[in-house]
Amino acid sequence: MRSFTLAVILLTLLLAACGSSHPPAASSASTSSGDPGRLVAPGPSRSLNVYAADGPNDFAPAVRRDPAVVYVPNTLSNTVTLISQRTFKIVGTMQVGALPQHVTPSWDLKTLYVDNDDGNSLTPINPRTGAAGTPIAVDDPYNLYFTPDGRYAIVVAERLLRLDFRNPHTMALEHSLPVPTCAGVDHADFSVDGRYMYASCEFGGRMIEIDLRTQRVIGTLLIAGGHSSPQDVKLSPDGRTLYTADQAAGGIWEIDPARFTVTGFVRTGAGAHGLYPSRDASFLYVSNRAAGSISVVSFKSRRVVAVWQLPTPASPDMGGVSADGSVLWLSGRYNAEVYAIDTRTGRLLARIPVGDGPHGLCVWPQPGRYSLGHTGIMR
Q1: Is 344 exposed, middle or buried (0-12, 13-18, 19+ CB in 10 A)?
Q2: What global pTM score does this model have?
Q3: Which domains does the chain have, with CATH numbers?
């Protein structure tokens, strides 16, 4: 799938680089049940900053020699575009399976997986060389996560209404968890202690809570009476607040993960979609896809402190932050382009044409000890 020329280019690059408020008037409901068991994540189970290992250029040994590349899955072109973070130039394109949705780092940081949703496969990529491997047969991989202890890969089978627990290396199926009440299950994050997974239900207007020890749904949270469209999910640095972007309401809901209840709402912009912490864990970048803007939310004040408007037309969707924290990379979902944004000023550094329908791009390498999945939820 990859040419020798592209591998040479990548190796050349490597050597060259060596306001918070109460929720709008809408109802929410939660049901849950507890269990005294505990699944402990690698490292400390509690921390004042869950992103402490994700500081600027704090690389694990496994990624220190990986070239600085952005991997862009183009859902309608069935390709992945590779962009140099140093030059903002395209350095390669690879053909993958049908409807690639996200590019996901493996738990051990050694592989990037292209989630080919309609292709029912994962395409592994060696991030050291940029070479693609043999596709792995997997049902309906809209998204991909890993349990904090690294024991399971969790394939988010959106159209099948399932979370499939798989071997994180072979991707062999070990257990399927049906989630029939979670229409459009797609994005997730995890509790501080690694025991719980919180997933959004895009078409169901709710969130669900999964106990990873028992691999069962133990809580359901209806948001805005079900008249919501939850998207990306991120935990606050202190672990006390869970944020989910609501595309319908144009903002982010604040959820108490311990009680699994809505506690507040921050209005950001139309089509709120992706959520990305800054490298110093001070801010949360919110991509407002319909508004063509990015809202900067302070974790401390829980308020919007800046809005970066992109030149229209623009449709900022999903992506990630560069290793040094200076650039926010986002796909332009409906404009066949990628945006590179200066996080110090909000200035657009580059808009790079790619294939049709760019979606969950992966900025690589990233700091952190291990990956929880999606486009790079690092711990």
Answers
A1: exposed
A2: 0.89
A3: 4-364 (2.130.10.10)
